[in-house]
Structures are given as C-alpha cells and as structure tokens.
Write a structure and sequence with these properties.
With 643 residues, the protein is an alpha+beta fold. It folds into 4 domains: 111 residues, Acyl-CoA dehydrogenase/oxidase, N-terminal domain (Butyryl-Coa Dehydrogenase, subunit A, domain 1), CATH 1.10.540; 110 residues, Beta Barrel (Butyryl-CoA Dehydrogenase, subunit A, domain 2), CATH 2.40.110.10; 136 residues, Up-down Bundle (Butyryl-CoA Dehydrogenase, subunit A, domain 3); 149 residues, no CATH class. It contains 24 helices and 12 strands. The strands form 4 sheets. A 4-stranded mixed beta sheet has the order 3-6-7-10. Strand 4 and strand 5 form a beta hairpin. It is globular. The N terminus and C terminus are likely disordered. The structure holds flavin-adenine dinucleotide (FAD).
C-alpha cells in the first residue's frame, strides 16, 4: 500500500502527500494566534464569566443607526414592491431586474466604506438587511453575503493595499463577486488543495477546478485560493488572488442545483492557464488561508442573521396557525404537545436574535476579539434554526409537508414551511460545517492549556522542553485551578440588577467554572489524544454556546424598557437552555461514544453489509439513471447579464 492509498493520505496536484497530521498543521498555520483584545468566549471556556465585556449591551452611535434605518426602509420598500419570493423559488432564479434594483439601492456595497463608494453600514445593519432580504427569499441573502461576507470586498478590506482597494472596491459596490476555495477533493480540508498558481515573472498562471461557487456563475470578480509551488527562495503555499471573471481560460462548466437556496447562481468553474498579474495577489504568498479564516472571523455572522430571520418568521406562522387550527375541540396550540413546540420556537427566536445582536454590536464596537462569539453564533444559530424549522413543519401537520404553490393552488394560504426546512439545511454545512466549527472553537477553548502545557503532550518535544513545560504548567495550574472552586454564581445576591434573570446569570457563572473543570479533566485524561475525542469536544463547545446565548438573552432583556415582555422571553429561553446544558454536561461522561466508535469501524469494515439488503440504490441502479445520462441537456443559461 502506498501512502496515498492509506485513508486520509492522498497526493494533491503539487505532488504533496497529505496526511491527517499535515492537514492539521495547515489549519494551525492559518490560525490567528494572537489575542490582542479581550475575548468573552475565551474567558468563558476558562471558567471566567466576564459579564463586564458584554454588559451594558453595546450600542451603535446615532449616525450609524440613522444611516442603517434609512437604508433598511428603502430596502424594505423594494422587497415589498419589487421582489416576488415565490417566483424565485419556482423559477430557481433571481431575476435580473431584482439584481439591478439591489445594485441601485447600494446593497452590494453595504459593508464597503463610503470612501470607496459603498454605504459604510455597520455590522448590525448589514445583518438586519440580510435578515430582511432572506425573509423574501434566502437566495437573496446568500447572494449578498457570499459577495460581501466572504467575496472580494471583505478580504480586500482586511488585507488589501490602498491601491487594490481603490482599484476594486468601487467596482465591488456595484457588482457581484464570489469566493472560490472549495474543490471536488477539497472541502473541510484545504491542505489537499489542487488548484495551482504557477509564478511567471510578472504574475501567475492559475490552473484547477473550483466547486460550489456561490455567485460564481454571474460574478464580475472572484477571489480564488490556489497553491503556489514551494521552490528555492519562494515560500509558496495557499495564496489568495482577485481574478477577473472575464479572463481568458475561465469556463463555468455547470450550474449546480440544490435542495434549497434555489435561486443561487452556484457553479463549477475551471481555470486553464489563466494569467493573473502579481498586483492581484491579496496578502503574501502562503497567506491565503489566513485571509480566508480572518475574513470569516466576522463574516460568519451573516448565517446567524439568516437563521434568526427564519426563526422569527417561524414564530409568526406558529402563532397564527396554532391559534386558528382547531382539532379535538381546541386550537392545536392549546394542546400541550404543540404548546411546547410554540414555546421552543418563540424562546429560540428570542435567544438567536439576542446572540446575533450582541455579536454584531461587539463587532462594530471593536473592543473585544469576537472570533469565538461569531463562531459560536454560526454554530448555534444554524443548529437551532434547523430545529425551529422542523418543529414548524410538525405543527403545520400535513400542510407543513405541502409546498406553498400547491397550498395556494387549492385555495389555501401559501405558507412555505417545507421550503424553510430545505433552505435552512445548508447553514449547518457551509462556512464551516458543525463538525468543523466544533473543532475550531474547541481549539480556541483549549488554547491556554496548549500554550502552557502543550509541550508535555507533544510527542515531538524533547525532554528539556517537556521539563520546562512541566514547570510552567505547574505554576499556571496552581494559580488557575483554585479559581474554579467558587465565584459570584455561588452568592444568592449576585447580578441583582437583572431582577428575575439574575438566577440565570448565576447559573452561567457556575456552569462556566464547571465547564472549565470538565475541559481540564478531559485534557488530563486524554492528553495529546484529546483532539480525537471529537464528541467530547463537541459537547464542551455546545455548552459554551448555550452559556453565551443565555448571557446574550439576559443582557438584551436588561436594555429593554421596563415593563416590557422581553424578560419573559429571556427567562423562558434560559430555562430551556439550562435543561439542554445539563443534558450536555451529563453526556460528557455518560454516553455511548466508545461502543459507537467500535460500531462505526465495523460498518466501515463492511461487517454489517447484510443490513443493506432488500432495498435498491437509485444512484447506481435503474433505467432512470441511464435516462439522465443520455437525456437532453438541461444546462441553464450560465452567463446572464448582471448589474
Ligand atoms: C449551496 C452551497 C454553497 C457553497 N458556497 C461556497 C462558496 O461560495 N465558496 C466555496 O469555496 N465553497 C462553497 N461551498 C462549499 C462548502 O463550504 C463545503 O460544502 C463545506 O466546506 C464542506 O465541505 P464538503 O462538502 O467537501 O464536505 P467534506 O469536507 O467532505 O466533509 C464531509 C463530512 O465530514 C465532516 N468532516 C470533514 N472533516 C472532518 C474532521 N476533520 N472532523 C470531523 N468531521 C469532519 C464534515 O463536517 C461533513 O459532515 C458551498 C456548498 C454548498 C452546498
């Protein structure tokens, strides 16, 4: 067996063998290692509940609020009068006039500074705008956020030279852009990247194939990640480039179709000997993943915005439908089983919005490093948004499964509950799948431990390094462990200014210390092998997410006018979140992880293939597959005019 035949070790186009360890090294090298500002999330995982970092709730200045509200009003009017959401769903296409209208409104430049012809909106209002357009059709939110959260403007804003900004940002404010990282063999693991950028003297020649390029089919400019080969005197590595879509050698080969987001222009793009001038490189050679990850540090907040909008709409439909639909002598909402779902949907919509608002205000305030909070918000909102949509479908009964068009055709209100479920599903996969978010956040959660004790568990560290680390770790843990024994949460009077919510904040403080203790037990027990205990780490991260969400819910309620109903929602959300948190704590040590590992190995070793007998596999058998292969081409028009 060659190395490339072994699981997890394959050769990429530049001839490198990529093992699991190398994949991790590439991810580690792209990680931002410095913490220049305080981090609420990092402290939370260390057992230090720093409420002072998020309370009082940050608030944007009056000018940015006015600018944001003025834009939102124009956007709302356009959405209500000019966009037909059901038509986008039916046709699988965002009409050109909608793109043109959004361009005229300035929507493609929401996050671009005014000095480069953008609107210069705050993160708070950018997210509100995404939430609004996504409620008309989520493909609109996906188009705007693929362009602005990860597409050309954001990496340029963070890493571009002044000349690059002047050249491209005004164009980005009026045109669609895209971000091209994924390849057929490169999903969560960029170390395997095949696309190459070969130096030519005055620039590079790009070769490779990029998959699932949201906006890629219609983009004016794209950011492309490609490997510059390492050679004598050249650092090489994954590098980011701004590329003109009209460059010779670029072909959009296919427009992909999905279970949801049916209007997005997402394709497969092939690069063949595409010349890119040196001036188009963003940052240095080898910095590409750092560019991508740093862009996502805040860029990740757009998916929570979309998921929050979806949960808010679910709350509306759940209320209207469950109050009106009568079965067994009462509105279905009055049956306890349905009532529980309504309570879950309403409380979660509140909690998600609280988390989104707090993270976005923190992003604008720039007082804290919010990379952990934004990642937690993405993870939590995509998972909870999915559960909310699923519960709405259940509450709607058979109508939850029926399409909006079908409902309308037989004279009922066309409520697209099944569509929400389909559209929500991808949020758990792209911009960092849930599994990858767990690993990424867990890495940050254990960062302090690794920096003081990493050499003790590093198999490559020599005895001297291990001894030095043992001394340092001894000093750190002698100081840190006693801080986990007691804290403000143990005092009945703490957080009194939060009134009925004070008890929840005391719980968060206690749970934060308990979380840190459990993380420490995990590290002590598994040491260097902890990174393979992904389900343990996933639960640690999920507890952190619940604690952050509870903190956000309480802090948000506290800033609302007295006598309002926000406190009731925050209280209900925290009650539910505490139950989930306790379940997660229990499952840290009482679970079926060990037997599941054995079973998964058995499944992968074909031990139980008899279990699959008695069914057919439509993806490899039957005449319908042959029909699809030989049938007429349904290729859409890939080059629609934009702008
Ligand atoms: C509609 C849509 C739009 C997209 N838009 C873009 C875009 O604009 N630009 C772009 O570059 N990409 C885009 N993508 C790609 C998207 O980001 C990837 O699908 C995502 O990164 C996951 O990669 P993958 O699908 O190859 O899954 P894989 O990486 O093959 O993963 C398969 C499964 O294994 C899990 N997994 C993988 N590695 C690990 C690990 N180390 N530990 C634990 N679990 C692991 C994953 O979580 C997943 O469940 C888009 C995809 C879709 C479907």
């Amino acid at each position: 067996m060659t190395t490339a035949d072994q699981p997890g070790a394959t050769a990429n186009q530049t001839g490198q063998q990529v093992s699991e360890q190398q994949a991790r090294q590439v991810a580690e090298a792209a990680r931002e290692t410095q913490w220049r500002k305080p981090s609420f999330g990092k402290e939370l995982f260390l057992g230090r509940f720093r409420l002072d970092l998020v309370h009082p709730h940050p608030r944007g200045d009056a000018a940015s609020v006015d600018r944001g509200e003025e834009f939102l009003a124009r956007l709302r009017h356009f959405c209500q009068t000019e966009i037909d959401g059901p038509a986008i769903e039916r046709d699988g296409l965002i009409p050109d006039e909608v793109v043109k209208g959004l361009t005229e409104l300035g929507a493609f430049g929401m996050k671009i500074d005014t000095e480069y012809d953008g609107l210069g909106l705050s993160q708070v209002y950018y997210n509100k705008a995404l939430m609004l357009v996504s409620s008309v059709h989520p493909s609109l939110g996906a188009m705007l956020s693929a362009h602005q959260s990860i597409g050309v403007p954001q990496p340029l804003k963070m890493f571009g030279t002044e000349e690059q900004k002047r050249t491209w940002l005004p164009r980005c404010a009026r045109n669609i852009t895209a971000f091209l990282l994924t390849e057929p063999d490169v999903g969560s693991d960029p170390a395997r990247m095949h696309a190459t950028a070969t130096p030519t003297g005055d620039g590079y020649l790009l070769d490779g194939v990029k998959l699932w390029t949201t906006n890629g089919v219609v983009a004016d400019l794209v950011v492309v990640m490609a490997q510059v080969p390492r050679e004598e005197g050249r650092r090489g590595g994954i590098t980011a480039f701004v590329v003109e879509s009209s460059s010779p050698g670029i072909t959009v080969e296919h427009r992909n179709a999905f279970m949801g987001l049916r209007g997005i222009e997402n394709g497969v793009t092939r690069f063949h000997q595409v010349h890119v001038p040196e001036a188009n490189r963003i940052g240095k050679e080898g910095q590409g993943l750092k560019v991508a990850l740093s862009t996502l540090n805040v860029g990740r907040l757009s998916l929570p915005a979309v998921s929050t909008g979806s949960a808010k709409w679910c709350a509306k439909i759940a209320r209207e439908w469950s109050g009106a639909r009568v079965q067994w002598g009462r509105p279905v909402g009055q049956h306890e089983a349905v009532g529980g779902k309504i309570a879950f949907i309403a409380a979660t919509a509140y909690g998600l919005e609280a988390m989104l608002e707090l993270s976005s205000e923190m992003a604008d305030e720039e007082r804290n490093d919010i990379r952990i909070e934004a990642a937690l918000a993405k993870l939590y909102a995509s998972e909870m948004g999915w559960l909310v949509a699923d519960e709405l479908v259940q509450i709607r009964g058979g109508r939850g499964f029926e399409t909006a068009d079908s409902l309308a055709a037989r004279g009922e209100r066309g409520v697209p509950a099944e569509q929400v479920l389909r559209d929500q599903r991808i949020n758990r996969i792209f911009e960092g799948s849930t599994e990858i978010m767990h690993l990424l956040i867990a890495r940050e959660a254990v960062d302090t431990h690794l920096s003081v004790a990493g050499d003790i568990i590093d198999p490559e560290a020599d005895l001297n390094r291990k001894a030095r680390a043992a001394v340092e770790a001894g000093k750190f843990y002698a100081r840190w462990l006693p801080t986990l024994v007691t804290g403000k949460g143990a005092l009945k009077t703490s957080f009194g200014e939060f009134g009925p919510l004070a008890g929840h904040l005391r719980y968060v403080e206690r749970a934060s210390r308990r979380l840190a203790r459990n993380t420490f037990y995990g590290m002590s027990r598994w040491q260097g092998k902890l990174e393979h205990r992904q389900r343990f780490l996933g639960r640690i991260v999920d507890i952190g997410a619940e604690l952050f969400a509870m903190s956000a819910a309480c802090v948000r309620a506290q800033r609302e006018p007295e006598g309002g109903t926000a406190t009731e929602l925050a209280d209900a959300f925290c009650q539910q979140a505490r139950v989930r948190t306790e379940e997660l704590f229990a499952r840290l040590w009482t679970n079926s992880d060990a037997s599941d590992r054995t079973l998964a190995r058995g499944v992968l070793d074909d031990r139980y293939t008899w279990l699959e007998e008695g069914v057919l596999d439509p993806s490899i058998a039957g005449p319908w597959v042959a029909d699809q292969i030989t049938g007429p081409s349904t290729k859409p028009n890939l080059h629609r005019a934009v702008g």
